[in-house]
Write a structure and sequence with these properties.
With 217 residues, the protein is α+β, with helices and mostly antiparallel strands. 53% of the residues lie in helices and 12% in strands. The chain contains 9 helices and 6 strands.
Amino acid sequence: MLVVMKVLYDPLCGWCYGATPAVRRLVADADVHLALIPTGLFSGDGARPLNASFAEYAWANDQRIAQLTGQRFSARYRDDVLGARGTLLDSGPATMALTAVALTDPGRELDALEAIQTARYVDGRDVTALDVLVDLLRSLGLEEPATRLLAADSELVAAVESRTAEARKLLHAVGARGVPTIVVGEAPSQRVIPSERLYGPFANLVHDLRVNPGELQ
């Protein structure tokens, strides 16, 4: 049975980073058609200053994510990213980079997302900076998306707006607020998989994807 699944995410969301290994395993399943849709949660009006109180809050959450998933949050990330004062938590540039990939080589969007997440949470790089994002895309052989990101042409800007609007509309439709959110199926029978399934036994996640809505526990 083919399962259509949409993953609503933000590239600067720690919980989304924690969910990436499970999403990667699902991509390997021939019966799962997966679409990544960025919400723009931390972009535009959602961007926020990286002050000391937010950094402390984020690091505490990150340690919980690490315990649940085994994903790494390095000391360099803590010091050079969370500790960088006068900067913003702004996923707008990363969302545009990922959208450039989606427009030119959509099968590589998850690769690009993983590279951005690793650069931030492990290598401690500033993935709000355009030059860093361009370098990451080029390191993956994604020269065309890198070129489009630098140009920020009108089609790319419009695609970012369209994708984030789609994601927010879908979040509202299913009654979800945060990310990551997994939506299975199509309207009017689409349903949300509990986000905790992304951090538990993989077999439970697969089970919830494949059962009928009335069988969910």
